[in-house]
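Support request, please re-run this one:
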Amino acid sequence: MNEIEVPVLVAGGSLVGLTTSLLLGAHGVRSLVVERHRGTAIHPRAAMLHQRTTEIIRELGLADVVRDAADQEFVQNGAIMAVEALGGKEIGYFQKNVNEGVDHLSPEPRLFITQIGLEPILRAEAERLGGENRFATELVDVEQDDDGVRSIIRNRDTGEEELVRSSYLVATDGAHSPVRERLGIRMLGRGDFANCITIYFTADIDALIGDRNLSVIYVNQPGLLGFFRYSIRRDGGFLVVFSALDENGERIPDVGADADTERCLYYVRTALGASDDLPITIENVQQWSASAGWAQRYSQGRVFLAGDSAHVMPPTGGFGGNTGIVDAHNLAWKLAAVLQGRAGEALLDTYDLERRPAGQMTSEQAYSRYVLRVDPTLGKDDIEEPLDDIAIELGPVYSSAAVLGAEPTTEPVTQNAREPGAHLGARAPHLWAARDGERLSLLDTLGRGFVLLTGADGQAWLDAAASLRDVDAHRIAPDGDLTAEEGAFETAYALPSDGAVLVRPDGVIAWRAEHADEQSRAELADAVERILAPAGDRVPAA
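Re-run finished. Output below.
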């Protein structure tokens, strides 16, 4: 049997698996991705990218190419609204413009792009950075010990099997994750609550849309609950049917059970509010279950869960794929730091401690939106109070040994990302600045090693960081190496002018100091060591 050695094996080569490979490559770590399907996505799923995701894409240098690809598929900045039918009565708008009121919070907007448009970009860049992708290949066996992971992969066309020896395995193999099941990790949460279908169709719907720019259209009428999106050419799209009534007015328990062409045509025509003479073609129908839940743990030994293998949620809010991408962002730098000898293995324990509460919170928020927007019959008494979308996208707060001074908790915590402040365990705030006359976001300085950010009177922090490896430092002031208006940094980060924050490679505030003094260098060096070696297996920072 042929043997392959690679630092990280990624099981699952869809959106989150490809992102994991790409992020690992950006940190200098080779990976092998195995995916049982024969290529990237062929159906237009996961159409909305939230701002944290587009920030990560910007960090990877792909913002322009992804934005161009998005513009090929959708008119951006559309509304999210509810109707009785597309050509019928409007019920109301959840958002008139998906970027309204949030564009100042990030250097990047929310975007609509499908996995068809996005995954080839991620795959090409991951391969450019040294990642290998094996499609039509499945993972058939996994064993692990203290020294590594031993996996058997099989080519689905030839039947040939190969042995892969890796230091770590990341399972991004979907909601029914075989890896998770092999590990015996249970799912917690709501479970399945609706058997649904997605109908891909073509039809000339231009007249039904009119002059409206609509990104997501919920259909709420007694006989049909669902939502749809349409293509930029307005010649079709897809309709998700959550539930429907039969000819006797009884609820159909499983809309996919008898979803033949005739019934699917009925669903699409009903959702469109179209006349009988509008030609409609059904191209494909997929059955799936709406679920909300999260894994009881995100890691076991040398195996980590990310994406749908770690959490599932209904599509209300578009949180699923975005949450998985942030999983990968959190994990990749930690794997790289350990593999490259810059951190102790205990750093990897913080992945579960940080991302599992975030996944739980996001799953529950998506479920609340499903109940309130789609199906109130599920009951409102035990749902979580809906948070501002931006609190879910930009506001999660981590509590782990990789965030120094954070309040210990295992419960989900968010902060108001609309208010100024650099909160421990939260994403570093965006602020426009300039370097050598060129505008940049402070987020553009992040993504590889640690970054120290300080204000007008923080020169002592720059001196302290100069002797530490893997720590870049910037002073943000009218005369700083990054220039900004007087007081802008101090206001955005809620710091005195000689205060500082230490930002991790995933853009999370890991430590903050209110003032500089003669102990600044020692304090900074100690902070970096404690973050990289939370169990005390210290890796010197200098």
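Confidence is low (pLDDT under 50) at residues 538-542. DSSP finds 13 helices and 24 strands in the chain.
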